Amino acid sequence: MRQELEQAISAAIHELFDVQAEVELTRPDPQFGDYATNAALQLAKKLGKNPRELAQAIADNLNAHERIASSAVAGPGFINLTVSDTALLSLAAAQPAITRQGMSVVIETNNPNPFKAMHIGHAMNAIVADTIANLIEASGANTYRVSYHGDVGLHVGKSMYALLNYAAGDIKNILAVAEHERNSFMSKMYASGSRAYKEDEAAKAVINDLAEQSFVPKTALYSHIYETCKAWSFEQIDTTVARLGNKPTVYRFLESDADARGVAIVKKNTPKVFVQSDGAYVFEGSKYGSFDNVFVASNGRGLYGARDLGLMQLKNEQFHPEKSYIITGGEQAQYFKGVIAAAGLVDPEQKDQTVNIPTGLVKLTTGKMSSRDGDVIEIGWLFDEFKTAIQARGGDSDDATIAGALRYQFLKIRVGGDVIFDVNEAVSLTGNTGSYLQYAHARARSILAKSAAPSADHYMPSDELQPDERLLLRTIGEYSEAVDRAASELMPHYICTYLYELAQEFNRFYEKNRVLGDVREAQRLGLVALYADTLKAGLTILGIHAPEKM
Fold first, then answer.
1. Pairing label, strands 292-296, 142-149
2. What would the mean pLDDT of 475-479 be, rounded to a whole number?
3. CA 214 to CA 49: how far, in whole Å?
4. Assigned domain for 145 exists
5. How many domains does the chain have?
6. Average pLDDT of the residues in 412-438
7. C-alpha distances in angstroms, 100 versus 171, 248, 539?
8. Alpha helices, DSSP H only, in 393-455?
9. 437 closest CA partner among 527, 531, 508, 503
C-alpha cells in the first residue's frame, strides 16, 4: 500500500510538472490522516514555486485515486492522505515483504562452550539470534540455524583439572553425579579450575597441559571424563535453548573441527595476509580498524582467529551461504572486525559474507551478572525466579509463559543496548512486558470465544467505519510495515514497540466500545479477530507463545 501510494504521488508530480521525484510517505498522528508527505516542499526548491500551491495541485490530483478517501494540504506544504476503509482493510491483510527470496543464510543461534554452565548472557545471545533468524525467514531466505562451540582449549583444561581431582582416578565418581545436578556441578568444576589457574603456578602448568590434551588426550581416564562431560554439556545446551523458545539448530560446529583447517588457511596465506613474528602468525588488524591479533601461536596451535577462519570454510562447504551471521557480546566486536577483514583478504568472495551483530550487557537489579571465575547466574535459577514472580501474581507459570516474559525483556531493547531488568516488573500484566502481550492475546481470544455468532475470520465493513473502529484497524494495518523495518535492519525491538502500541490501542477501543451484544457485533468481532491474529503473528516472530487463555 505504502509503495503504491508513493508511486501514485510520483506519477501525479510527473503529470503535473514533468519532473521525476522520489516520494517517501510517513505515518502522521491519526488526526491528520493515514499517511503524509513533504514532496511538495522538496519540489518547490527545484521549481522555485510556492510549496502550498504545488501541494494543493498534487492533492487535487490524488483525490481521484481509488485508494484515497481524501487528501489535504497542511502547514507550509505538507500533504496528508486519508485512505478508504477498504484500503485500510487491505493494509490489515498485507503480509511482510519478501526481500530475501531465495537467499541462503546461516546464523549461529547459540554458541556457549561445553564444560561450563549456560548463564543469562548466553540466554540473551541465543534469544536475540533466534529472533533475528525468524526475521530473516519471514523475509523469504532459506535460513539455517547452526551452533558453534569451543570444545578445546584453556577453558577445557580448567574444567578437566577440577574434574580429574574430583574423579580421584575413578570415572564412577563423575558418573554418580545426578542428572539434575550436572549443570551446577559443571559450573562449580569450572570455577574451581579457574581459581586454581589464577592462584597456583603449579596448577597453572598442569592446566595448560590438560588444555593441550583436549586436542590429543594422553590417558583413557581423561578421554572418558572429557567425552562424558562434553555430552552432558550439549544435552544441557540443547534442553536450555529449547526451553528458551528457540527453534532447533540443523548443525553443530566444533572448534576441534575448525582448528586444523584454520591453521592451514593462515599458513597458506602468509605472507600475503598474515605476518610471522617470533614463530607466531599475526594478522595486522590495526590496519583495518581492529587490533593486531595472533591467529596461530608459536607452538603451531591455532587460536580463536584461525578457528573462526576454519569455521567459515566449514559453513561454506555445508551451506554455501550468501550471508553468515554471528551474534556475540559487544566485547567481541573489535575481534570480529579483524577476523572478517582477514577472511575477505584470504578469499575476496568472502568479503562482507560474515556479519557480527554485537549485543549489550545483561544486568539484574538484584546484583552482579557474572564473572570469568565461573560465578554465574544460571538460566535455571532465572526460570525459578520468574516462576515465583508469576505465581505471586496468580498466573500460570509454565515454561512457555516464563520464556515469553524472558524473551521480551531482551528483545524490546535495541540490539546492542544493555538490558537491565527487574524480574517482578518483567512478568507484570500492566506495562511493556511479554506477559502483558500474552495476556492481551488471551483476552482477545476470550472475547471471541464468548460470542454466539459465527467466527469472524474475515472482517468486511458493511458500512462506514466508526472513528474508534478506524483507529484500531489503522494500527492493525501497520503490522507489515513494522515487520519490514525489523527485518530490514535485523532489529526485533521494532516489533515489540509495535505490538505494545497495538495492544494499547485495542484497550482504548474496548474501553469505549461494546463488542458483544452491540448492533455492530459482527463487525467488531471481526476487528477483534484481526487484532488477535496480528498480535499472535508478531509474538510468533519474537518466538513468544501466544496463549489462548491465561
1. unpaired
2. 95
3. 76
4. no
5. 2
6. 90
7. 51, 22, 21
8. 399-411, 423-426, 434-450
9. 503
pLDDT level of residue 295 (50, 70, 90 thresholds):
very high
Q: Which of 81, 102, 104 is nearest to 24 (CA)?
A: 81
Q: Which stretch of DSSP H or E encloses residue 540?
A: helix 521-541
Minimal CA–CA distance to 324: which of 495, 138, 129, 124? Answer: 129
- In the predicted model, is pLDDT for residue 373 greater than 50? no
Residue 442 domain flag: yes
- pLDDT greater at residue 459 or residue 431: 431
Confidence of residue 338 (pLDDT cuts 50, 70, 90): very high
Which DSSP category does 181 fall into? G
CB-facing half-sphere around the CA of 91: CA atoms within 13 A: 28
Tell me the CATH number at 29: 3.30.1360.70
d(CA 299, CA 305): 15
Question: What's the farthest any 2 CA atoms get from each other in the chain?
Answer: 90
What is the average pLDDT across 112-121? Answer: 89
Cell numbers given for 174: 563423575
User: d(Cα 426, Cα 405) in Å, to the nearest integer?
Assistant: 6
**Last residue of one domain, picked from the residues 35, 56, 83:** 83
Last residue of a domain, one of 65, 83, 101: 83
Q: How far apart are CA 23 and CA 8, in angstroms?
A: 9
Residue 482 grid cell? 513494522
**How far, in Å, CA of 359 to CA of 413, rounded?**
10
Domain that holds residue 15: 2-83
Reported confidence tier of residue 459, pLDDT bands at 50, 70, 90? low
Cβ–Cβ under 8 Å, residues 402 and 387: yes
State the pLDDT at residue 460. Answer: 58
CB of 407 closer than 8 Å to CB of 434: yes
Question: Mean pLDDT across the chain, nearest whole number?
Answer: 92
Question: What CATH code is carried by the domain that includes residue 388?
Answer: 1.10.730.10
Bridge partner residues of 104 (DSSP)? 142
| DSSP designation for 430 | S
Percent of the chain with pLDDT over 70: 96
- In a domain, residue 268? The reply is no
The whole-angstrom separation of Cα 323 and Cα 315 is 10
DSSP H helical segments within 139-274, as ranges? 154-167, 172-175, 182-199, 201-213, 220-243, 255-268
* pLDDT band per the 50, 70, 90 thresholds, residue 509: very high
pTM, to two decimals: 0.92
399 occurs within a structural domain: yes
Structure confidence at residue 372 (pLDDT):
45
